[in-house]
Amino acid sequence: DGGITQSPKYLFRKEGQNVTLSCEQNLNHDAMYWYRQDPGQGLRLIYYSQIVNDFQKGDIAEGYSVSREKKESFPLTVTSAQKNPTAFYLCASGVTHPGYEQYFGPGTRLTVT
Amino acid sequence: GENVEQHPSTLSVQEGDSAVIKCTYSDSASNYFPWYKQELGKGPQLIIDIRSNVGEKKDQRIAVTLNKTAKHFSLHITETQPEDSAVYFCAAKGQAGTALIFGKGTTLSVSS
């Protein structure tokens, strides 16, 4: 069964704790992306990676970190430096040649109190 | 950098009517324009896309048009059904990398 998986679906953490969100894909896509979604804000790019062992900051990278050690996996760590971490986090993967289609996972809703 | 504006933010139609959502983009080098449908609590689903060398694309009840001169593109849904109710996002890809810039979304409500 091909696709993008994100786990867990709901995550609760106390303020000051780092938390890592999982994203795995078996679509053999080179590129992977992390977006944050807040009500009325659309989707904002946090980080993206076009190949293994390389990644670039998006528009709102402060307080987040990523790694891309395997083609299939692109975990996102929300650090204690992120001032407003409560949000819906979406992972996507996509092709880079010849098109640019991106496909999204089901999302992780993170609540920090 | 690229900016994408989407209108309207909410749209209510009767079942069977048509719905149109419009987006404008700022980067004239943008060459790929997808549309996504997001149901409550789920990830966005790619429903149709268009590239800059094409003016119109249709897939059953949905169609997308692109006007490169005016830098805007639109989603058209005909014969709307209650299951079309969702949030729709447009996006554009600029020249740098493969990341997309998204509009803020349109909440479409189709009443029967």
Describe this structure in words.
The complex is a heterodimer of chains A (113) and B (112). Chain A is an all-beta fold. Chain A is 0% helix and 52% strand. In chain A, strands 2, 4, 5, 6, 9, 10 and 11 form a seven-stranded mixed β-sheet that branches. In chain A, strands 1-3-8-7 form a four-stranded antiparallel β-sheet, with no helix packed on it. In chain A, β9 and β10 (102-104) form a beta hairpin. Chain B is mainly β and 112 residues long. Classes of the chains: A mainly beta (113), B mainly beta (112). The interface between A and B is medium-sized, with 29 and 24 residues.
β-sheet strand percentage of chain B: over 45%
Number of helices of chain B: 0
DSSP strand tally of chain A: 11
Q: How much is the radius of gyration of chain A in Å?
A: 13 Å
- Helices and strands of chain A, in order, run as EEEEEEEEEEE
Sheet having the most strands of chain B: 6 strands, mixed
Q: Which overall shape of chain B is indicated by the principal axes computed on the Cα atoms?
A: globular
Determine the structural class of chain B based on helices, strands and strand pairing: mainly beta
Q: What gross morphology of chain A would you assign?
A: globular
Please estimate the helix content of chain A: under 10%
Radius of gyration of chain B: 13 Å
Figure out the total of helices of chain A. 0
Question: What separation lies between the terminal Cα atoms of chain A?
Answer: 36 Å
Low-confidence stretches of chain A: none
User: What class, by secondary structure content of chain A?
Assistant: mainly beta
Mean pLDDT over the full residue set of chain A: 93
SSE pattern of chain B, N- to C-terminal? EEEEEEEEEEE
Mean pLDDT of chain B: 94
From the structure provided, what is the oligomeric state, counting identical versus distinct chains? heterodimer
